[in-house]
């Protein structure tokens, strides 16, 4: 029989646990420090999305306790809408069952791993379920111990309880093995700090081992406006995208398929396409669209003039909110913030790039050896801590000629470069969601936006240099004030040294405050002599 064929037996089913173990690195659960930060990341992003969708200002709590060596207990809580009892299993205990991937609107998570991946990680590293407690504000609080059936990928709920209570929100607690708590730049605390920067409307409380407590207060009471689902834009589509969508369409004609499934395609644009594609039948059925015709249509799209893509599907943080967040966390001496106009990359997906550069204050990466320039990366407000070397943001910043902007020593300056990539579907390099693919359009937009901020910082640094030179000249002249006062009194044979000294100081700090770079010691001495003569004349007139 076919089942006895050794070739056939190669294609056997695998359990989700086996899939998880073999793909841990791709999913973000590799390395003890990274695994713990990934767990915090998944819980926090879910809480932020849930609160924003319900119009609630997020209050998020994260607590980490170290137990049994390389085991940690993580407890996450929020004040969101909670999860109804019937959806708890699917949301937290079923791999690849996410509801976000097919929605054409901006969200932090996409792949359907998320919190269910954390449940699986607890299961394969400690053999224990996670504890869940949730309330939707209906006087009922549901709790259970949640696990996953690794063979069927189905949730298993034990010790289920329904109690009276006014709780609204979600609490999850799990014990995880093969993890390590670290306070460095890749640990949970660093992740939460960056989350606070990109989400100024959220308040985050952290409690770590040894009763370490940190509060990141919200800097804004404005809840981000919810993005809306939109259709893809024709620009940036590939032939494969177009053929696949057409073959699944229920429209009767290719022309109606284009108008119903893509934004900015009107009857007028269809007329223009007919002129560019005389040998392509736009009245044919979409499911019969041939690859060669689809290639011609993609080429024609690139030759048409299009209205920019709608931005209803994406919601940048906003310039004012970014400023509030950076002041709240970094308190910089200087700050420049930019938001670029929407663009389109492969797949017809619109995106926006937000950037900022801060200087001074708590900017930069601070270590025992000193301070250095820092690049903090975000995708849809979620921090990207790992895989920096393969990220489009890192590539764009590295390719800049910082010397051109007066920052030759960028690596040793108190500078933070902030970049937030906003899109419906972020082109991550892996399911771990820690690096953005090096798409040409994305890298180019990031570079242009960072360069705009860098030019403003360049002006600020030049002003600091001029002010420093001015102050140095002023100090050089002030060193001669004492001697000049004594010499003038001695030469004139009369006068009060202290009184003359005060007049000289006032003269330097007042009249020459803005012109000190042009003043010379001789000029000041001449002014001082005139002041001394005027004082003596006044004295003589008084005596007479």
What is the averaged pLDDT score?
Answer: 85
Oligomer: single chain
CATH top level of the largest domain is Alpha Beta
Radius of gyration: 32 Å
Q: At the third CATH level, what is the topology name of the largest domain?
A: Heat Shock Protein 90
Portion in beta strands: 15-25%
The side-by-side strand order for the widest beta sheet comes to 5-4-3-6-2-1-7-8
What are its keywords?
544 residues, alpha+beta, Heat Shock Protein 90, Helicase, Ruva Protein, domain 3, Ribosomal Protein S5, domain 2, eight-stranded mixed sheet, six-stranded mixed sheet, 17 helices, 40% helix, 20% strand, globular
Q: Would you mind describing this structure in some detail?
A:
- The protein has 544 residues and is α+β, with helices and mostly antiparallel strands.
- α5 crosses α6 and α16 crosses α17.
- The protein has 4 domains: 201 residues, Heat Shock Protein 90 (2-Layer Sandwich); 65 residues, Helicase, Ruva Protein, domain 3 (Orthogonal Bundle); 139 residues, Ribosomal Protein S5, domain 2 (2-Layer Sandwich), CATH 3.30.230.10; 65 residues, no CATH class.
- It is built from 17 helices and 16 strands.
